[in-house]
Amino acid sequence: MRNMENFFKRRFNVPKRTSELIALVAISTTLFLFLHTRDLNTRLKEMEVRLHPDELLSSNQLISGDSGPAHHPSSGVRAMMKILQSAGEVTTTLQPFQLNNTRKAMQEVLFFNRVPKVGSQTFMELLRRLSMINKFGFHQDRVQRVETIRLAPEDQAVLAAMVSSYDTPSVYIKHVCFTNFSEFGLPEPIYVNLVRDPVERVISWYYYVRAPWYYVERKIAFPDIPLPDPKWLKKDFETCVLSGDRECRYMKGETREGIGDHRRQSMFFCGHEEACTPFNTEGALQRAKRAVEQHYSVVGVLEDLNSTFTVLENYVPRFFKGAKDVYWNEINQYNTINRNLFKPPVSEEIKDIVRKNFTKEIEFYQFCKQRLHNQLAALKLPEQ
Hints:
Blueprint: H1 2-11, H2 16-51, H3 53-57, H4 59-63, H5 73-85, H6 89-92, H7 96-99, E1 109-112, H8 120-134, E2 137-140, H9 153-164, E3 170-173, E4 190-195, H10 198-208, H11 212-221, H12 230-234, H13 237-242, H14 267-270, H15 282-295, E5 296-301, H16 305-315, H17 317-320, H18 323-334, H19 348-355, H20 359-379
Parallel strand pairs: 1-3, 1-4, 2-3, 4-5
Helix pairs in contact: 5-20, 8-18, 15-20, 16-20
């Protein structure tokens, strides 16, 4: 029995230094688990906001489905602020400098690589008027016979060099994919753009290219352009979707070259690379998100113009000072730029069919909307 007791004493006789080491490892492990759990909790909160942004940040809840002056824009922005602040510490601790890429710009040139059918024509008119008020140069791309949005590297370099050659301050506007000036050894400009609900946008594009006045304008500019097939002109969007027409199938991974893939707005942020061409893919989505986060000062949202103008006026004041006043009191009341009266209503059932194939586009749109709302929250604007 005594031999057995001696055995156990020898078996569990742990040196003092070893005991200290075990205690240190236990404390370190506990600390790591605490930090990791806290990090996971933070990420879960962020994911909840991203997965349910409309429940938290719906512009319809904030501005009664209309961002016009009749609903008092300042009250809409205040309502937005209250909802964002109630979302938790993640929004109230934001600071404007953390979300403002304007400070990264190396030249006082605004580059608006406008997405089609997101209100960019009206936005361009706004910039033209602001150029006279805020004293900056206004430049836009000429109308082209074939509009190519993805450029070869040498053409990207030419574009970047041309934009960088303008006297500052200036703005340049063109339908083109995101072009990284720094890749060509040129100073980075101030990037801005707009986005729109992707399904509403693709419907708008569908009827825009079939509008009679669109072909009249094209025919005047380029007389030798042939007129389209009347059957194609008369084809409505609902029939196009239900019949499985290639124009309205929107298949994952599909690529369309030539004039440019106007089905999706994320391509205008993804860039010119081949990886940006497949439709509705994770890789193209992540590239587009990264470009917005790293380069764009502001990406506005057509459905929430009050927040868009408030953020632009505060984050890019050199160019957008007075934007809200000019838009609501001048442009919106009297201007009918690109308002297509030939676009019939499309049922929600058809829109739901299209949404199933636009999952990445919808995610990108929600991502841009969330970023805009975070930029607004970071301003911590007063009640008045």
